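Lay summary. Proteins are chains of building blocks that fold into shapes, and those shapes determine what they do. In this project we predict the shape from the chain. Here is one chain we studied, written as its sequence of building blocks.
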Amino acid sequence: MKGRLWTTGYTVLNVTYFAAFCTLHAYAAVFLLSRGFTNTQVGILLAVANITSALFQPLVAGIIDKKGWLTNRRFILISCLIILAGSVLLRFINGNMPVIFVVYALIYMIQFAYQPVMTALCFEYQKMGCNIFYGLARGLGSAGFAVTSALIGRAVEKSGATLLMTVTAVIMVISAIAVFFFRPSDKITPAGDESRDHKEEPVKETAKQGGVKRFFADYPAYGFFIAATVFFFFGHNMINDFMIQIVRSLGGGETELGYANFLQAILELPVMALIGFVLRKVSPAKLLCFSGVAFFIKILILVFAPDMAWLFISQGFQLFAYAVFIPASAYYVSQTMADSDQVKGQAYFTSAITIGGVFSNLISGVILDHLGIRPMLITGTAVALAGVLTAFAALRKD
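And here is the predicted shape, written in a compact code that computers can read:
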């Protein structure tokens, strides 16, 4: 492959990943509620999946970092095949809630687990000489989420939630084929800074010994950002996982849910595509703090939202929240960590995201069933504010 082809190939991986992320994650409550689950049961299922993912990601990262048989690319391919099998099974199961619980939790967990590996794959290939425009590819992945959401909302309203599993299976077939052919040849040679989105500071190359304690001792600011990430994504996951309930409380339905998810996702494209240029002027650490403030404002607006118009305004803050946080966190790891810590660094960020989801899932569903939408959103706002304060504490350590 040559320059544009590498970016095209990586873009296909991102588009298919986030299209499936839409059907499995953004519409998780829609599918599970249609199968007879309560809000509390949905929260428990997603919490179990997130806990398992948070434990699984560092384990997989440690194995991949050892440079054995399990590579980034192979793990992604295996993940696609597992999700494909699970979605086909769920397509034909209705009424057996224990089986649905186990299978849905598994594929939900697996899809979260290979997200940091996707990021690590890009930086691995860049160092091998593959000229990949990460920001553009990741932004187009969000566009894939947006288009899928815009189309699937109305389709589900007309045809039922089972359609979600059919679409997921088709997407996973495409993704598995794309991953299979996305591999460098022996002719690739290491490249310099010109293969990156922007010029990066050199990272320490020496392999280090030790476990989790050593890791966080070497990167003290990173530990604060990990804690802040848990807080940010408590609120973020609260909104995403129970968005259908928020939309219904404001007078909308599945179609409006699709439009709301389309809006927030499509706004991510320009930011992620241009983030490399922004990083020439602003450090990843400062951008992480900036995104945290946007996470807080986004959920605060929903506390006082009287109608769907304000929900769309809230979704617009995705432009400064998630759209900034994801690439900024990827570059933060790439710039500050040794090669031997790269996959672990990406994985811990994603683990923090999933841990935030765990607490959100366990708490949000219960609050929603017993107290309602607004108390749930007030809780999320308070936690997001704690995240902002923690992120600024991290900036002082950086």
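What the prediction tells us: The domain at 3-184+212-397 is CATH 1.20.1250.20 (Growth Hormone; Chain: A;).
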